[in-house]
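Handout, section B. The chain below has 76 residues.
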Amino acid sequence: MTEQTYTLEQYPEQLAVVRFGPGAAIPPWAESSSIFSVTATATETSVVCAARNVPTKARHERSFTAFAVKGPSTSA
């Protein structure tokens, strides 16, 4: 078995998790980030995006950091 090496690369932006009601439209300010993610359930829609873009009145939590795993990939 060959040992594989992976590294972590930190994304440059501080991130926030913003909570919306179920089925909410994603506001344009949420999409201008180096990393952007939407998770939707029956009870809420959550967005991870750049903290600098989030309006102060939005229901959110700040100061998250994301990392990318860099290294070999395998085919399934």
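Note. The first strand starts at residue 7 and ends at 10. Compare this with the example in section A.
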